[in-house]
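Customer escalation, tier 2.

The customer says the design service returned an amino acid string that "doesn't look like it belongs to this structure." They asked us to rerun it and document both sides in this ticket. The original structure tokens are below, unchanged.
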């Protein structure tokens, strides 16, 4: 009936309270009594009874034939019997074979609230709706994982193809794979194990060098470094430097080499050593710059960043980094919860303990206590002594458990997702054969990849539809 020439009725449109109106829903025609519809005044059909002009009618239906006095709705006729049953009985019933989201959108269109669903169907309806929401979240997460894995695999393969046009490309590609892909071959595994041992040895010597049992005294009685530790340090620096230079020489794209986070970590792990040597040379040549020695001491402490080099050889550490990088919203939410809790309980502790405990006599001092308590660390250096203070501390600890657990669950789910993706990506990289010139890309399930894309698009459109304001609210705002 769309496209039918409508004629404006003279004097507007008036609905008799006892008259029947004709409804056409996608070809399904029905006559409904006005008194039946007026029992539910907030529904779309009942609002038609209050319309006084054709413009207001067309705001509620898709077309109107003023000759036949028929209202046309371009909706699914298979679902309209459920709406009719609602007007007759006052309750909604949901069949098991119905799509929950289609039914939910349909009753929302007709202005029927979900509260009218009968008790025999309400529990199953809401459970199915929650399960579908959970499945959509999983599909969006999987889609992100699939997309990211696919893009990373193509990036890896694109880098490998760059060697075909370079001098000694085949040999450089083998070395690149051996250095950047720890599980690619036996040689790469040996290099990976050796690199891990050097990192752990360097960290161990740095820790032992801070212990008085391993320190040597110089002629002035000042503690100095053990020459054996210095030898281990120089060997480690030599190995780290050789690794970085070798990776840089055989890199497929030198201009973008340091855009990779792991290459930046390799540079940061050796940079303090060379900066310390430079500072020591400057201090020896210019005694007036003796204060630079303190900078050298700070730089020596930066050697601890070498532990991050293990991320190149650990799937778990790389997954953790990806999780933190993609969980900034959850981390921000966690910090916000903690900030609110710490502020609240620090004031509470100050109020009840300021006269009984010197350690909690100021609000900033109570911040430390509240932070330690909410994170369930509990050093015990500052404790409340009054009964009210202990009750406040108990509430603070319980609130801290709840505050920390909720965002951590979301972060853990993302970690599991990224860990699974990283393992699949490593397997795909190791399965690539580059002995000859590359002729085809590795096998990737493009059907699943684009299926996830379509599912993500449909889920986004569905969420936009459900999150949009109802027709009733829109009409109220217009009027």
């Amino acid at each position: 009936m769309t496209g039918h020439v409508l004629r404006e009725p003279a004097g507007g449109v008036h609905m008799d309270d006892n008259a029947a109106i004709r409804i056409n829903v996608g070809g399904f025609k029905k006559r409904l009594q006005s008194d039946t519809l007026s029992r539910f005044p907030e529904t779309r059909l009942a609002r038609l009874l209050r319309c006084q002009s054709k413009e207001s009618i067309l705001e509620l239906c898709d077309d109107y034939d003023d000759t036949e006095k028929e209202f046309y709705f371009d909706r699914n006729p298979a679902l309209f019997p459920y709406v009719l049953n609602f007007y007759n009985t006052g309750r909604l019933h949901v069949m098991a074979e119905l799509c929950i989201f289609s039914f939910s959108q349909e009753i929302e269109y007709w202005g029927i609230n979900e509260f009218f669903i009968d008790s025999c169907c309400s529990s199953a309806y809401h459970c199915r709706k929650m399960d579908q929401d959970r499945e959509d979240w999983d599909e969006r997460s999987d889609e992100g994982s699939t997309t990211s894995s696919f893009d990373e695999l193509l990036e890896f393969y694109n880098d490998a193809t760059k060697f075909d046009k370079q001098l000694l490309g085949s040999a450089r590609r083998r070395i690149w794979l051996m250095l950047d892909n720890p599980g690619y071959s036996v040689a790469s595994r040996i290099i990976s194990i050796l690199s891990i041992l050097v990192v752990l040895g360097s960290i161990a010597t740095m820790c032992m060098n801070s212990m008085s049992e391993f320190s040597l005294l110089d002629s002035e009685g000042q503690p100095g470094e053990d020459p054996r530790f210095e030898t281990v340090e120089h060997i480690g620096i030599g190995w780290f430097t050789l690794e970085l230079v070798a990776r840089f020489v055989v890199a497929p794209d030198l201009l973008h080499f340091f855009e990779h986070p792991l290459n930046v970590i390799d540079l940061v792990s050796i940079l303090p050593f060379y900066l310390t040597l430079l500072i020591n040379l400057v201090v020896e040549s210019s005694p007036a710059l003796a204060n630079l020695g303190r900078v050298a001491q700070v730089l020596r402490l930066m050697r601890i960043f070498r532990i991050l080099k293990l991320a190149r050889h650990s799937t778990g550490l790389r997954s953790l980094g990806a999780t933190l990088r993609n969980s900034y919203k959850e981390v921000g939410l966690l910090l916000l919860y903690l900030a609110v809790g710490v502020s609240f309980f620090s004031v509470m502790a100050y109020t009840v303990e300021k006269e009984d405990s010197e350690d909690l006599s100021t609000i900033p001092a109570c911040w430390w206590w509240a932070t330690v308590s909410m994170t369930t660390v509990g050093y015990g250096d500052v404790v409340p002594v009054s009964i009210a203070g202990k009750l406040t501390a108990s509430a603070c600890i319980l609130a801290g458990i709840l505050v920390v657990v909720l965002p951590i669950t979301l972060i853990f789910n993302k970690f599991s997702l990224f860990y699974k993706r990283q393992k699949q990506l490593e397997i795909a990289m190791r399965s690539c054969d580059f002995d000859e010139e590359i002729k085809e890309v590795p096998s990737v399930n493009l059907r699943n990849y684009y299926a996830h894309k379509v599912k993500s698009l449909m889920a986004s459109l569905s969420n936009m539809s459900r999150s949009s304001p109802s027709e009733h609210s829109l009409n109220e705002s217009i009027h």
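Tier 2 assessment: The sequence is consistent with the input. Residues 1-13, 141-148, 436-447, 463-479 have pLDDT under 50 and may be disordered. Residues 387-430 form the longest helix (44 residues). Sent an explanation to the customer and offered a walkthrough call.
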